[in-house]
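dude i think i finally got it to work??
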Amino acid sequence: MRKVIFFLIFTFLSGSALAAGPHEGLDCLGCHDPHYAKAQKIFKVKNDKYINPRTGKKPQDINALCLGCHNLTEFGGAGIKPIYLHMTHPVGIKPNPKIAKVPEKLLRKGILQCVSCHDPHPSNPNWKYLRVDTKGGSQVGVFCMTCHPAKVDTKFYGVQTVKIFTSMNEEAGKGEFALDDPNLVIFNITPEYIKPLGDFPNSIAPAYTTVPNLPWIYSPNPQNLPPELKKLLNQKK
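look at this
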């Protein structure tokens, strides 16, 4: 009985005993919202408040989406495992070739972004959703050598080249690909067809912390809807 209780407590605290990572518990709707999107790729979150200390500008593109969750609420995020750009690996910048030899395929328009290092989809089995297998974090140097090959002792890891995980190419399917493989797709270009009607606070699944495995329905509080949308809804009554 004690073992059963311990298992249930562990499952609750860890999110899910079977989940590959915390994003799996969110389900797809934790990040994407097909009907109340507020950013590209039907993302339900974005961060247009935090100032990137390395650029002096607000987060752009995919970085704004990641920081819509992973930053404090007062800095435009949802307070989920927040990071702070003033003390973390730089993003939103053009890499300095003297510091990093970043493969072109990992950049978008020459800019290093959060997803240059991470594929955040639950199909990614790697530690911390990194694009490179680090054996559960025990061989982080293998991941680092992707962009910093001169700084890593490849003989120590017994690895000469790395393969990059991606789930973005539905034709090829999820998996690891060599950097010169044409099937390696990091970004899918999304038309700017989403025109949000105003704005409302970032939020994720209400049941995220307690029932991370179960699907949930997102229904925004009418008081939080943007005025433009309220007006349209009232006209239809």
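The chain has seven helices and four strands.
im so relieved honestly
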